[in-house]
Amino acid sequence: MLGYHYPHATAHYQQAVELDPMDWVALEGLARCAGEQGDHVSAIAWQEKAIDALPENLHWISGFLWPRISDWAGQLGDTETAFKSAIEGFRANVRCTLAETTYITLLDQRGRSVELVECLRKLAATDVPGASYNALVRLFVRNEDVFEAIGRACAKEGRPEFVLEALKEAMDIVDGGDREEVKIVLPYKAGRFKYTFYGLEQAATTLLESFLKRLAQKNESVQRVHAVARKDARNLLAQLYFDAAVSEWKSVPTRDSRPASADKLKQLAVGVSTGFGDDYEGFDLFRTDYPAMLWGRWLRDYKGVEGGKWRKCFRARLLEEMNTVDDDDPTNDTLGISSLAISLFHAGDRANAAAIMAILFRAGTTKSPQTTDMNPEAAEKTNGLKLNISQTESMSHACSNCQKGLEEVSELHICEVCPGQVSWCVECLALLRAPEERKAAPYLHRCNPFHDFYRAWPIPPEALHVAAQSFENGVTVRMEWLEELRRQWWA
């Protein structure tokens, strides 16, 4: 099978089964061959026969076999068989990592957080043969893809301390071992986990800083492998630095206050710098990413520096995004204009950001009886830019906490500070701003209640035709609007 010669392997396994119908190895081989070729019905049937053929003293091996039935049933859309098979696998062999991760994943998919935490407790009480740690620690040591599933359940069930203890033990074991790949990535996953699901901002900051430091010491090929994680870690660190700096500033709100977190934020924001003072007049080359925008927001909103200084943090990024809107590539229109809206919010231009959000939300919904498809003031204009706005992407707006879409919520508020687009329905925004309620919700730590929010849904009528010339047969943007926006940022 290793050479993907499935027909050949199948013929040999069938011969073995003809000689011994209870040859569980051959039966499992037939199941694997069928599964790899997409015949999941046959794969499940053969695997069930393999399990039935196991001798009593080898029953523990079924812990490795049931998860495959779970996977194949899932691909067939048979969720009940998938879940029951996951349960059987875990019961058969609680020490089998495949059985553990399959069971945890399906418990998470079904929202059965109580059972999932009980599963974690059982793992924490289960020793690993030949090791000095338990099965829960092993999941983290092996860097299994269950951090999100475990985190969601823990957040719903009181954020149990024993999970954090297992994670710390795993990190100590990894740091003392030779698995370099896990040494690099585990601090990143642990930092994300502690912030998102436990709200431990300082612990998350320390871990993410460790991840970036370790990654920076590796060669370029290793850094490329972890480029997405590095970007995400930088963005989250920038938000944590910004939030900490704002919190410190609010306790002593003077122009001369200089929180240490602000200096760390600037270190992320600049590509080249020779000074970190707020009034520094030397040469700074700002990056075009999220940390640079947060540094610009900090300078403008809290340090009160003049426009010529904070605008440098946005200029290159905004001009780059405007170019994606009117270039010759229609495939990047939705992404380009969405990114431009977020950047404009950061740059303090809420009017133009709101105009873009109106386009995105309007393009993805059925026509409202209160709106017209043509901007009355632009009805005679022909100087318009046709955009290829993806309806699917436009309709992707949903509450980041409850996951309800536009058709299910009365309002949707966009966070103007968080990286990407973090959105809240009116009920979840109220939870975010309620300290006690926030403690009980799984995803509310991905945002800060003191951030600025913009109510993008329902679409404010005054925003609908600021940038849009027409919604007839798609979206047409007024070229003069884009040109004026470009002129503002060239200056």
Account of the 3D structure:
The chain is mostly helical. It has 3 domains: 6-178, Tetratricopeptide repeat domain (Serine Threonine Protein Phosphatase 5, Tetratricopeptide repeat), CATH 1.25.40.10; 235-313, no CATH class; 339-490, no CATH class. It contains 24 helices and 8 strands. Helix 3 (40-53) runs antiparallel to helix 4 and helix 12 (201-216) crosses helix 14. The longest helix is centred in the middle third of the chain and has 25 residues, at 227-251. It is globular and about 85 Å long. Residues 367-372 have low confidence and may be disordered.
Mean pLDDT: 88
Number of structural units classed as domains: 3
pLDDT < 50 stretches = 367-372
CATH level-4 homologous superfamily of the largest domain: Tetratricopeptide repeat domain
Q: What descriptors fit this protein?
A:
three-stranded antiparallel β-sheet; Serine Threonine Protein Phosphatase 5, Tetratricopeptide repeat; 491 residues; globular; 24 helices; single chain; mainly alpha; 8 strands; 3 domains
Summarize the structure.
58% of the residues lie in helices and 6% in strands. With 491 residues, it is mainly alpha-helical. The radius of gyration is 27 Å and the shape is globular.
